[in-house]
Design brief:
Blueprint (H helix, E strand, L loop, with lengths): L1 H16 L4 E2 H8 L3 H13 L3 E6 L2 E6 L1
Antiparallel strand pairs: 1-3, 2-3
Helix pairs in contact: 1-3
């Protein structure tokens, strides 16, 4: 089921972000998620109010709230 996979991927992102803010590009590499799955999981976490985004010089960073 897609929503279950999104939840699992959100957990993977959460674990990586416990070490601090990182770029979306670095997060993709650290989690080994394809872009679509990364975006779904980030959207899930954002909707839940668990992450915040920051853009610096055109690069998007994400951190836990």
């Amino acid at each position: 089921m897609l929503s279950e996979r999104i939840g699992i991927n959100a957990g993977s992102i959460w674990s990586v972000l416990e070490n601090g803010e990182m770029s979306v590009k670095a997060l993709k590499k650290a989690t080994k998620l394809v872009e679509k799955d990364l975006n779904f999981a980030l959207g899930w976490l954002a909707r839940e109010g668990k992450v915040k985004f920051n853009e610096v010089e055109g690069e998007l960073f994400v951190a836990l709230v």
